[in-house]
Amino acid sequence: PTYSSGGPTLGERIEPSPQIVSWRPVFATYAAEARLAPSTIKRWSGVMTALEERLGTDDLAGVTGEALLSWKDALLASGLAPGTVRDAYLGGVKAVMNWALANKRISANPAEGLSVKVPRPIRLRDRDLTDDEALVILTAAISEPAGRISKEHAAARRWIPWLCAYGGARVNEMTQLRGCDFRVDNGIALIRITPEAGSVKTGLWRDVPVHPHLVEQGFSAFVLQRGDGPLFYDPAAARNWTSAHPLYKKVGERLAAWVRSLGVNDTGVDPNHGWRHRFKTVGRRSGISSDILDAIQGHAPRTEGEQYGRYPPEQLYEAICR
After folding, report:
1. Is 204 exposed, middle or buried (0-12, 13-18, 19+ CB in 10 A)?
2. Does 241 or 165 have the greater pLDDT score?
3. Minimal CA–CA distance to 295: which of 162, 168, 189?
4. Which terminus of the chain has fewer CB atoms gathered within 10 Å of its CB, N or C?
5. For residues 52-88, b (16+ Cβ closer than 10 Å) or e, as one string?
6. Bridge pairing between strands 188-193 and 182-185
7. How many alpha carbons fall within 13 Å on the CB side of residue 53?
8. Sorting pLDDT into bands at 50, 70 and 90, what band is 110?
9. What is the spatial distance between Cα 154 and Cα 291, in angstroms, rounded to a whole number?
């Protein structure tokens, strides 16, 4: 993404402070200490660069609350959504400033107390895919692909919608799967979702049983044929990818575009994330308890007690079989 400076105005530019605190080395140290994801580093670097262009300086110590307020107003006036300004722009600046203040780089945080009022979203439908939408996607997934596409992309179309339907995972948790993440334990086929393979929102691994219907369809045989490496992309054949925008994310984006091309184009539902919402709905319909659904999907435990112990694979498998 290209980040807007909000339209620089010479009258609002600020003079560097006597002791300049450049944001780049501060941010580099913070990112390394916090082990920020490459995508977060790329996003927040763009935000900080946009702020620098707005103010005419890279000096964190010279930034004032009034300057940030003016920038916020300019971003909103440029047409950016309030949620984007709050989360993508101010969120990044506040994170950097908070760390800089806590680590004695600056003496005050000018972003403190600055906020954006985000209107309550208007929803005209549920966020999960309907039965009809799911049927369209899953039917297309088992059909021969039209046109020439790579075998990896054909495999992604074939298997990822079904994996998401039967496991409720985030789509990129599936697009990053490797053959070595699959195993059979006591007769139960399992896939391990792990930060070793790519991005996991919680940073925690989990094992998710594979529905027996997927085994019947040949998923286990497909994995064995692919070997231990990535299942849905070929690192050797790809170009122009970076750690901030890895190949498995591109696979997810292409899947979303394909789903939209099938006619599942209601903007009220995400073409990939809609499976995650649907899994909760179908799980409740099947009488699966909320804590089991959360464990399967990798949602954070709601209580301190729920963080203790684990859910055995056979218990999760029984739930998924419903």
Report:
1. exposed
2. 165
3. 168
4. N
5. bbbbbbbbbbbbeeebbebbbebbbeeebeeebbbeb
6. antiparallel
7. 13
8. very high
9. 34
Each residue's pLDDT tens digit, 125-181? 999 999 999 999 999 999 998 888 999 999 999 999 999 999 999 999 999 999 999
2 contacts 78 by C-beta, under 8 angstroms: no
Q: What is the pLDDT of residue 1?
A: 64
User: Structure pTM?
Assistant: 0.85
Tokens standing for 277? Answer: 């919402």
- Compute φ and ψ for 231, nearest 5 degrees: -85, -30
Q: Helix/strand/coil (H, E, C) string of 110-140? A: CCCCCCCCCCCCCCCCCCCCCHHHHHHHHHH
Residue 259 amino acid letter: V
Residue 318 has which token pair?
Answer: 């029984």
d(CA 146, CA 291): 41
- Three-state DSSP state, 262: coil
Of 125, 168, 115, the C-alpha closest to 269 is: 125
